[in-house]
Amino acid sequence: MRDDLLTLLTALAAMVLGLWAWRRWHYRSFWLVAGYPLMALTVRGTWRKVALGCGLTKKRQRWWFTLTPGAVASTGLVKVRRRFQRIAVDTKPWMWLPLPTRHGWRVTLHLLEGQIPDDYSQAAERLAHSWRVHAVRVSSPRPGRVVLSATMHDPLVRIDRLPPSDALLKVVVGRLETGKPWEIDFRTVPHWLNAGATQSGKSNLANALIVGLAPQPVALVGFDLKGGVEFTPYAPRLSALATTRAECAALLDDLVALMADRMGLCRTAGARNIWQLPPGVRPMPVVVLIDELAELYLMADKSEKDEIARTSTALLRVAQLGRAFGIYLFCCGQRIGSDLGPGVTALRAQCSGRICHRVNDPETATMTLGDLDPAALVSARAIPAETPGVAIFAGQDGQWYRARSFLVTEQAAEHAARMYSDLTPAWADITSYVHDTDTDTSELDLTELLDA
Ligand SMILES: Nc1ncnc2c1ncn2[C@@H]1O[C@H](COP(=O)(O)OP(=O)(O)OP(=O)(O)O)[C@@H](O)[C@H]1O
């Protein structure tokens, strides 16, 4: 008898150890074979209770039949007096079978009458706690349906690298929590705001962009309002670098003139943007990286007012018109609040790409993520300091995602800048049309080029 018990205990211990080792060494197969079926049963089995607890049920009149009148029936406490009678019962939304995903599961629900997806977004945290999962995200692929996507653990604690993108002006900078690549594609979303507290991972993201764009036929321009400490090491791959406000103002004037020149070029060729020009004529795209955006707007005394107004207007013009003429902005800053003036608010409206790292104040999160789902703001404020590089990212599709950039050290970015320094176009060459300024000259050059 004792031997049997010992054998049973040993077998149990070996099984637990085996399961632990399986989970530890090959989590994906463990999840699909053992974890997911158990989880699917639990989710289906507990849905009525969970929906009731999270306020997602509706009272509906139903005919109710029971053999034991007086017994407690239905989900609520409904006393049935007769065997067959009409009573109000709590109805749960119809749930399909949960399907496994890379980091958890997802399930489609049919909304009950009067419900909207926002009701589920507001209950997302309660749902996550009820099912003991890391997070539940809500999306609505079509009217009347919501999809709950649950992640068992934070998938961004450790992320694997992905191959770089081959497409022009597109850089894979990290991974989304769905496991998909986090892409910054300037041709789809031309201007970006990248906000975050100190040590949240903003510069790391800028490094990732430098490494991704360095091998591409693109001119890179740096505005480093930290006195040049961030971007000077990347100077070999930068066509121009401004480190003071005065230099920034001059460089912005150049960019506005360049834009006007490209406008003339497109007008002459009957094109709406530089991408409609033939490849031989098309000017090189320019990506402008700005570090510490707030410094451009901070006023120590009234004497700076005019300079700030000039800089702010020029930057806004670049943001408004740059897209068609191949000039793209990537603005980083710790604070992008409305207290910096109306220039920042107007610039923000032009930047449809938003990235919000960990922030200290709710206003920066609100300013950066704007009118996105309130859950995005909650998520941005919940980013822990132990995971630098994690950010809330809003792209072209209007959806928001949690994402984490790949770690790209300053050394890696410096190395890329040196390695591809021969691809750096001289600023004088890029702006050569500007300095000729004569429209006739541009027309002449264009006709010659088109003929060629
Ligand atoms: N994606 C990431 N994965 C791992 N570590 C990261 C990641 N991003 C940043 N870090 C680390 O976090 C630290 C801070 O990063 P970073 O310098 O990019 O922050 P920052 O927001 O630019 O800070 P500051 O405003 O002070 O310059 C660095 O030591 C960096 O190595």
Automatic annotation (TrEMBL):
Matches recorded under PANTHER family: DNA TRANSLOCASE FTSK, SPORULATION PROTEIN RELATED
Q: Which GO terms describe its molecular function?
A: ATP binding; DNA binding
Give a yes or no for keyword ATP-binding in this entry.
yes
InterPro entries listed in its UniProt record: FtsK/SpoIIIE/SftA, FtsK_dom, P-loop_NTPase
Which SUPFAM superfamilies is this protein grouped with?
P-loop containing nucleoside triphosphate hydrolases
Domain (FtsK): give its ranges: 179-366
Entry superkingdom: Bacteria
Q: Which keywords annotate this record? A: ATP-binding, Nucleotide-binding
Which residue stretches, if any, does this entry annotate as coiled coil? none
State what protein this is by name: S-DNA-T family DNA segregation ATPase FtsK/SpoIIIE
Q: Where does ATP bind?
A: G196, A197, T198, Q199, S200, G201, K202, S203
Question: Which Gene3D superfamilies would you find in this protein's record?
Answer: P-loop containing nucleotide triphosphate hydrolases
> What is the organism lineage in this UniProt record?
Bacteria, Bacillati, Actinomycetota, Actinomycetes, Streptosporangiales
